[in-house]
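TODO from last week: model Transcriptional activator NphR.
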Amino acid sequence: MPLEGEWARADVFRVLRDFSSNTDLNWPHIAELYNFDLACIEDPQGTVPITAWHGVFEHVAKALGDDGVMFDLFNNVEIGCFSIFDYLFSCAPTLRDACVAWIKFIPIRTNAYRLTFEEGETGGYVEWPILEGRGEWRQNMFARTGWATQQLERALDMQVPPILIELATTAPQNTSAFQKKYQGRLKFGASHNRIFIPRSLLSRPLQRSDTHLYEIILKAAMEELDRFGQLESPLTRIANEVASNLAHGACTLPHISAKLGMSQRAVQRLLEKEGTSFRKLSEEIRRSAAERYLRGTDLPMKEIAYLIGFSELSTFSRAVKSWFGMSPRKFREGSAKNAEGGGGQRKRASLVRLSKMPHPASRSKELTERKTRMRAD
């Protein structure tokens, strides 16, 4: 089947559907609502638009009345639900090899983003980029976190491996078993979606490793990569580059073009072909980021302004009012009231603070450096 635009594999919907089979969820209606072919759920090679991939998770969590359920559901799925990608981790020689395989073969799961794995003196981070402008991704990220953590648990034969998890969103109102299990190792309201793995674990041989079997798995993964592994679309590359540079105050056409290795005119022509412009794209991404920070974090307004590329709080406030028809403070207050109203008698889960994150960056230092860069630009 032709793969157009930004897509992700549809097999995750099968997990959602089977889990909620005893509920009143109307999947034909969901497919129509989020614009995907219902038959793709049964197709081993089925794909859905990335906006549907995000939106359906939010829809199902809301219908189930449990905004923490995705952690538990995907922390307990059977290995093999998600094609050969599952076995890349469990059969790898070491945890480092497993992480590297994830990075290499993520294109068989989606063309909308790339995972990264960076290793330092104390360990390595597996990180998912924050996708601005593709709809609310919170529940989808809870699911990815539950699944990825399960892979680590099984590979290491540890019920609770000594990892640290950071999520760039608020804690769910319903406290999941997963949150209780990783209490003290799970931080919400962070600036990244990532998992830290201590260096001592990365070189550890995995007990289920099988050299011959792993060669077979890698061969099968390469075949899937040939089928699905299209490069990110140019528009996706531009959008992701803009989003990642907002916080550095360097979201300008010359800077983004240079980062992409393209001329400014080439970027402009590509965007024109897609019916947009650099100004419109950056504005939409900045608007999406502002909404996420205001709805999902308790960060000060001044810091949010810097994070999305505004050097002055007054400019940020005017932009928010033009986007949402109200001041940043009123927008945040309205979002909080809606969240509390939707939660009934459930109490909002408190944010878990990690007191011993490796090499924690000073937020004030980051802001100072960011402000200096923006002034220099």
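Done. The first strand starts at residue 7 and ends at 9.
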